[in-house]
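How a chain folds remains the central question behind the approach discussed here. In the encoding step, the backbone of a single protein was reduced to a row of integers, each denoting a local shape. We regard such an encoding as a compact summary of how the chain folds. The sequence in question and its structure tokens are set out directly beneath this paragraph:

___
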Amino acid sequence: MVIKPRVRGFVCVTSHPDGCAAHVQQQIDYVKSKGPIGDGPRRVLVIGSSTGFGLSSRITAAFGCGASTIGVFFERPSDEDRLGTAGWYNTIGFTEKARAAGLYARNFNGDAFSDEVKTQVIQAIKEDLGSVDLVVYSLASPRRTHPDTGAVHKSVLKPVGKPYANRTVDTDRGLVSDITIEPASPDEIADTIAVMGGDDWERWMQALADAGVLAPAATTVAYSYIGPEVTWDIYKNGTIGLAKNDLEAACARIHGKLSADGGRALISVNKALVSQASSAIPVVPLYISILYKIMKAKGTHEGCIEQMQRLFAERLYQGADLQLDVANRVRIDDLEMQPEVQAEGAKIWPQVTTENLAELTDIAGYREEFLKMFGFGLPGIDYEAECEPHRPMI
């Protein structure tokens, strides 16, 4: 099968197995180039480990800290005549490289919201690792079946209280346009919090604690985003932001329990990056395209792996200062939020049109990063060659 990218809206419906493996290798090479991370974790559970920040966290833990890792994800497997998802191929690529380096790597493909998957993972920890000293919660899902009620909750990307009007970009066609989004209903707000808030993270940590598989002084970290005011009505003050507020409240409760044994629970506020989640949020892709232009010119641009390597090496471990903000969050978005970066972005924002999009923004870089998530555009891969789509999990 010759595999080409096929983009529908904000999703690429194809993925390239060899390209995904090459993308994973790029990240591994970066982490190894930065050297070992002192005092890092040794036994790590990553919930949401197959793409984005979760995958980069797993790579950093394994190849920066020499950690054994367990990954939990929900991806479509490949078969003889059907492609798997990028996350499926990413995980295979990571596992092959980790085991070749003598590192333990075990995978669970299933609904991380379910009690069944929690039970399976805990049993694996007991059998293979004894305990975990870092739990990364990086789950991004559009829906959740509640383990107690069986109700299916679906998240929405909407403002709260009033309609939101701003500019956005169709990243596939390069069209800049105005958009108006109606506010979320109370039920939609509640559903989004149920999916993207802190309840499941709290359930994971309680289940791990009850099973006795949290190491003394264990750390757990979940990821969030704040961004500039131009995105706040759809993000920070919208349904996603309310879910993130719930995540922070859960963090405080989890920290209260872990701190009694020297442990800690943290929220890391990360940089705006191209991801499957961010691509779906109106307005945000235009902001990211502008941001990439500015930060690349300043030499401060980071991708997922640079962010996670810096989080581990400069904030979480090696005796580093967490540098918490007033809300007790780790801020690894510090380079994005530099006043001069934000001022320049605010100046560019109202000037962007369809005609000058390529000149004023890094829309080309956005598209490149988007396709790279699905294994396309990687050097050294012959995209005209036949490629076997079926790759069984190892």
